[in-house]
Amino acid sequence: MLLDIPKEALSTHAVTDYANVGPSEVTCRNSPTGHTSVPQPAKSNPMSIWRAIMKKPRTAVRSCHQKQASGHEGREKQVLSSSQVKPSTPDGTMPKFPEAPAGLARRQKEVVLRDPVSPYHLFRDTAEVTVFRENLLSWYDREKRDLPWRRRAEGEVDPDRRAYAVWVSEVMLQQTQVATVIDYYTRWMQKWPTLQDLASASLEEVNQLWAGLGYYSRGRRLQEGAQKVVEELGGHVPHTAETLQKLLPGVGRYTAGAIASIAFGQATGVVDGNVVRVLCRVRAIGADSGSTFVSQQLWSLAQQLVDPARPGDFNQAAMELGATVCTPQHPRCSQCPVQSMCRAHQRVEREQLVASQSLPGSPDVEECAPSTGQCQLCAPPTEPWDQTLGVANFPRKASRRPPREECSATCVLEQPRALGGARILLVQRPKSGLLAGLWEFPSVTAEPSGQCQREALLRELQSWAGPLPATHLQHLGQVAHTFSHIKLTYQVYGLALEGQIPVTITPPGARWLTREEFHTAAVSTAMKKVFRVYEGQRPGTCKGSKRSQVSAPSTQRKPSPGQQVLDSFFRPHHPTDVSSLNSMAQ
Ligand code: SF4
């Protein structure tokens, strides 16, 4: 039972697969009617072939495959893993898989049959890929930003030091803007210029330097990775994306590809949020870019496009284009080096032409078949073109689940007359979970309308500092902070120990800090927001205390880089290794 499918009608993987095994091996073993053949379209033009496939023969394919599905459901649902996506050949064509076992080849075919992709969304020949590379790289050579990690990586001859420089920058840039990262990166590399330096640092020091950058487990994982390289890998960073991802904690597919291509010259493509946007626009991919299928297609495109002669520069150029030209809201298409091959731009021009001529439909130019709902890379028919968005119709944003809401009561407990100046109590969070190991004001989880909040908070305070005057506990206000998956509202209380014997015995896990120490400690941005509420409200019991004479550090008046990150904390910028970030997001 054979199913002959023109290779041009298949997805990127399908073309590869078909080229490797030949049409006679594409089987549909469970078909009750025996050999099922899709008639070969008359023309060899890929769009003609695609349209032919999208018509009646496609029904035959689906029918055959649906019957097959019941018996092979589990196997058919498999998608290609990162390790299965092979590098492109130097000329930009997709590679063959001479080493692929027959089982893998069959799985690839079956995935393709379920997930057809129009060639409209692909790069179809070597010439197109070559032009894309050349245009992008020559633009990058002219326009690239001068960034400290680029300078360091370009000037470093030692491969492990170079990899470390790239690794730190890529981890910091996850979910964080370049402008924010520069200062953190500079301080980090001054403090720990080598993997060995980082491996010997304490987690407390790492958290302290990371404070304000968000997603705190990134710093911890980075240090764990450095320790692994030093203690188990002889001080040498793995050279390939596959081994980087496999051996280093916190290194996902994107980070591994970035390190391997930039530091070691491996021809491996990468996909971050900027690349998603660029590729979705250049190939008019309107399907949900967060879906597994679209993600696989984007990784395949990136792999096909990456320049084997300059893979690191190419990957950085693609990201740079997304960050500076093909931006989410106001893309500057007139300055774009790949405008001539951008399908989103072509679509805008076509729609404008149709509108200006009051034509009933699109002119006869190349496009996919979005109205059929058949192409899995087109926007669904229920989401029509929005004239006001222009190229920003791509990529389509997946609807995000709103963060769950939680409430916490927290208290700034202060000794205004402590020896050596006013001090505030900080306690350390558990070693795992949200904000692991960071310092915070004593807190209790609380229901938003909980009546026992005050009593519970007082008990928590007393467990750290002994008997306290309950009447001095004042509610000062509230402040909200959104973590990746939680919107946490803090009910902020204050209590000043006036006229009492200073607390000198500190239990393990607690510290009395001066204001200066607080502002440089490993505390989260949320705690700094809480402290600002406390400073702004000043409990009545503290009026006239010495605390009012303590000048606030300059960082309090002028937002530090860490505080600036608040506004951009969750703004998509360099979303990479999304799966790993989700698990460690804080
Ligand atoms: S032409 Fe416009 S939409 Fe297309 S890649 Fe360039 S900036 Fe993005």
From TrEMBL:
One of its GO terms (biological process) is mismatch repair. Its main location: mitochondrion. SMART domains: ENDO3c, FES. Its cofactor is [4Fe-4S] cluster. Residues 403-535 form the Nudix hydrolase domain. Belongs to the Nth/MutY family. This is Adenine DNA glycosylase. It comes from Panthera pardus (Leopard).
